[in-house]
Amino acid sequence: MQKNNGRAETLLRSKQEIDARRNEKRARLLEFLRTETFTTREIAGEVLQLQRHATTKTLDMMLKEELIKAHAVEGVMWKTTVYGITVHGAATASEPGEDFVWFSPGRLCASTLAHDLWIQKNRLRAEKAGWTNWSPERALRRAIATEFQITNGVSPWLKVPDALAKNPSGEVIAIEVERTIKSPKRYQQVIFAYLSMIKKGLISRVEYVCVSPTVFKRLPGIFDRIEFVYHAGEKLKIEEKHRAKFSFHSANNWPVAGGTNAAVGSSNQQA
Questions:
Q1: Greater confidence, 64 or 4?
Q2: Which domain holds residue 70?
Q3: Order of strands, sheet of 79-85, starting from the edge strand that comes earlier in the sequence
């Protein structure tokens, strides 16, 4: 009888441990969705650290509990399903009294979905490498808007990056995930905006994560050829100390260990 009781206690502890691990994984996904608002099954699996079947099972359970909802997104030649956090899920993942947002299908744009998902994938890579305090663009815009309402002043955020995070060295980095190349004039505006934000202490520097080999090859050269920026009719020369605040990396080789950066006009070309 005593032996049976011991076995029952072991089984009970095992079930409790399994439940605790499951709840911890679900909480991890809700925390991810609290700022990202939506994701795909593939990325959810990475967050949960589960295989495909177990990920699907977990998502199905969370759908039944109305913590998340599924939404089909269609492009010209493709179709996928994203999972967004519900009002109930967002409230569950937030602290009491904290403002929260939830997934709204009407705000999701199929044309920018790939860009959003690339940013999420880079977030996971960065967090695995020890980066912290990741804030995606949507969360940043909400925070900036709130600050603007409180101070009733001009926001110092002249450019909102794709994401903001703290690297293992403690530097606050603006992260831009670049899928396509913009005009030199646009990059002049971007350089001025970021240098102004660096001077005000909002960020330490900027890291460009280039999605395609073409962007990775061409973008540093475009920055390198920009010798001046213009503001309020004034022509301002770009010096090497300014260029050193920007670095370029291929998506496969970011983040760089130790937070090492390359100067404008060159790129991280680790194999």
A1: 64
A2: 1-108
A3: 38-40, 79-85, 68-74
